[in-house]
Amino acid sequence: MSIKENDFDFESMKDKALEQLRSGASLYGKNGAFAPLMKKFLEAALEAEMEGHMDEVERSSGNRRNGKSSKQIRTSDGTIDIDTPRDRRSNFEPQLIKKRETILAESLEKKILGMYGLGMSLRDISNHIKEMYDTDISHSTLSSITDKIIPEVKEWQSRSLDSLYTIVWMDAMHYKVKEDHRFVSRAVYNILGVDRNGHKHLLGMYVSENEGANFWLSVLTDLQNRGVEDILIACIDNLKGFSEAIQSVFPDTEVQTCVVHQIRNSLKYVASKDQKEFMNDLKPVYRADTLDLAGLRMDELQDKWGEKYPVVIDSWRRNWERLTTYFRYDKSIRKLIYTTNTIEGFHRQVRKVTKTKGAFTSDMALLKLIYLAHKNIKKKWTMPLANWGTTAQKLAIWFPGRMVLDLQ
């Protein structure tokens, strides 16, 4: 089938096109000047594909044409109604517009995924598409489009990793997921690492019912199975058993427990009237220039507050070795590792995207959105950490044989 000139009133089409161009209306969408031309083009192309399909072999086997069916195709310029040819055996597989395909423009799918990755709800996306492109897309169609990211997510979760990461932060985020008609809690475990060249990477993302040392052990084992052989410094919160889980998989890793987490937990058990004074006495401990000075300030803190808050002081004493790992390094390294602020900053950016979601329909729906949010966030991770050249040299001295500089 060909597109014949006498099928159209070109003068009327020209006048309508000029008017729509001036008004900014879509030329190809519903009532667009070029919509009939696009419809004819698509139908002609489908007819050509059917002619190719109905070759001598097909005809000799008894297959024949079987009329046409109507179908709506969404494009980035609007919705087009077309008639698609059918055959009796239903084995005709058109390539231009595949069976059950309702989105023609790949760019429209990219726009939908982009909006979803910015945290827009399916309802908001549908309304935006309607307003911008004059085309209706159902929630089920939008959901099927976002599901196309699932294989990419799974492949990303299983990708190979570098053998060495210099600093790794590990922390969890918490969400609600619908399961068996009820809402349950989920912990999303994130591992953010810095490679030997100073670039940040999200190494992994895992979902579990809750945060615990046993699950962290399985996470660390997965990192090892994907190629990680060594981590120089791991920064964690003060979850019980977490340090032991790390060192069972990576025995040479230095573990730094987050000082800020320790402070927050301590203040829960300090009376509100004492908190300001207690913090003034605590700051010289974790801000000391050396480990020896930190120890002296800790003794002074205990002398003053030990009798009134023995549980708080005992917690600092029991966790002292993990809390003070950062004193072994200079201030540039200390700033990076004495808290989990780096990964908490990543989490804050993710929550800007997920905050509109009261609960997720499944674990995969949760992972999809965080993965797409991460893809947007990592666009800013193009440069190594500040002053990484100097930091890398110091790490090479502190970890001889493990941190090897790539020098010619």
TrEMBL record:
It comes from the Bacteria. Residues 52-61 have a biased composition (Basic and acidic residues). InterPro entries: Transposase_mutator (IPR001207). Belongs to the transposase mutator family. Required for the transposition of the insertion element. NCBIfam families: transpos_IS256 (NF033543). This is Mutator family transposase. Keywords: DNA recombination, DNA-binding, Transposable element, Transposition. Residues 52-88 are annotated as: Disordered.
